[in-house]
């Protein structure tokens, strides 16, 4: 009931994750990223403890592969879990348990990994990876392109209702964390629109946090 990707921008060092599902609020339960460390998706029958655990392991020096290997050892009911990881060197790793739901599969390359379950077909993750690798520009734009490619390749077997996009950079908080928790329309469209609005303001929000004295104006009534 989910398809996603985790990715690293080799140019900037940003990490990001984009995800969509037929379930509500998928990004609230399945998306994890930490600046200068990596990004993780913990999905299928979700165990929300696995994302932070994988990031903790990578922050202590484990590669994505080593973190996923440790997840397999420590995780409870790991046969039901699907976990994707990318680390600071662009290495990727995936665990897809044999009790993942429906049609499930995954694909990976340097700087990007994708996985899904209850898919319309087994080509969706590879389509996501291929689209990400063929894209350029801001990581957020590339994540959107990749998710749209997954949707065009078939996406989930049934209708999707929620989606999210999260990006971390050099500061200790997500520089973008955009979600559509439920819609009867297309949640990837909703997140795309939110990103198009948010992207031009992203740097200003960071600057306002670091030093509001030199930040641009807020552009709202009363802020002349």
A few lines on this structure:
With 224 residues, the protein is an alpha+beta fold. It contains 7 helices and 10 strands.
Description:
It contains seven helices and ten strands. The protein has helices at residues 26-30, 50-59, 64-74, 124-134, 139-152, 187-198, 202-210, and strands at 2-8, 15-21, 31-34, 38-44, 81-87, 92-96, 105-109, 112-117, 162-168, 174-180. The protein has a six-stranded antiparallel beta sheet. The chain has a four-stranded antiparallel beta sheet with strand order 3-4-5-6. A hairpin with a 4-residue loop joins strand 5 (81-87) and strand 6. The model has no long low-confidence stretch (mean pLDDT 96).
Shape call: globular
Total helical segments: 7
- Give the radius of gyration: 17 Å
The H-and-E topology, N to C, reads as: EEHEEHHEEEEHHEEHH
Based on helices, strands and strand pairing, what is the structural class? alpha+beta
Q: Summarize the amount of helix as a percent range.
A: 25-40%
Amino-to-carboxy terminus distance:
48 Å
Total count of strands: 10
Report the sheet with the most strands, covering strand number, pairing sense and barrel closure: 6 strands, antiparallel
Strand content: 25-35%
């Amino acid at each position: 009931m989910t398809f996603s990707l985790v990715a690293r921008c080799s140019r900037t060092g940003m990490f990001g994750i984009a995800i969509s599902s037929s379930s509500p609020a998928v990004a609230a339960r399945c998306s994890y990223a930490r600046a200068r460390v990596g990004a993780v998706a913990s999905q299928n029958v979700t165990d929300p403890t696995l994302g932070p655990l994988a990031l903790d392991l990578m922050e202590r020096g484990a590669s994505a592969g080593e973190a996923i290997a440790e997840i397999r050892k420590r995780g409870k009911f790991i046969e039901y879990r699907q976990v994707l990881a990318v680390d600071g060197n662009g290495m990727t790793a995936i665990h897809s348990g044999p009790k993942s739901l429906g049609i499930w599969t995954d694909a990976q390359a340097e700087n990007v990994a994708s996985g899904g379950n209850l898919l319309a077909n087994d080509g969706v993750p590879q389509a996501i990876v291929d689209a990400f690798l063929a894209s350029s520009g801001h990581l957020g734009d590339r994540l959107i392109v990749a998710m749209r490619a997954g949707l065009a390749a078939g996406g989930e077997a049934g209708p999707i209702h929620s989606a999210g996009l999260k990006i971390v950079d050099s500061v200790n908080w997500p520089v973008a964390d955009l979600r559509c928790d439920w819609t009867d329309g297309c949640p990837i469209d909703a997140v795309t629109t939110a990103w198009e609005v948010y992207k031009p303001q992203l740097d200003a929000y960071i600057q306002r946090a670091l030093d509001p004295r030199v930040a641009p104006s807020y552009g709202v009534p009363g802020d002349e």
